[in-house]
Amino acid sequence: MKTLKETAVGQTVRVKKLAGSGPVKRRIMDMGITKGVEVYVRKVAPLGDPMEVTVRGYELSLRRTDAEMIEVE
User: Fold this and answer.
1) Distance between CA atoms of 45 and 1, rounded to whole angstroms?
2) Alpha-carbon distances of 40 from 15, 23, 63, rounded to whole Å
């Protein structure tokens, strides 16, 4: 199992599953991160948080704790 948090900069991955529940999962889904969508990791901040990704043609910043809940392949 690989999460978005472990994905290297410059890689494109496909979302396999969203872990977590309730408002946090809902917020991630509202940002456009749903099962089957491709996510491109653009860059990671110097201290590792947040990470910047491209989803559905727009840029998004994600906390590492949120990225940990996104299972990718």
Assistant:
1) 24
2) 11, 24, 15
For the whole prediction, is pTM greater than 0.85? yes
Q: How far apart are the first and last CA of the chain?
A: 8
d(CA 8, CA 4): 9
Which tokens belong to 36? 């089957």
Three-state DSSP at 6 gives helix
Q: How far is CA 59 from CA 5, 11, 38, 54, in A?
A: 16, 15, 13, 4
> What digits encode the pLDDT tens for the residues 48-59?
789 999 999 999
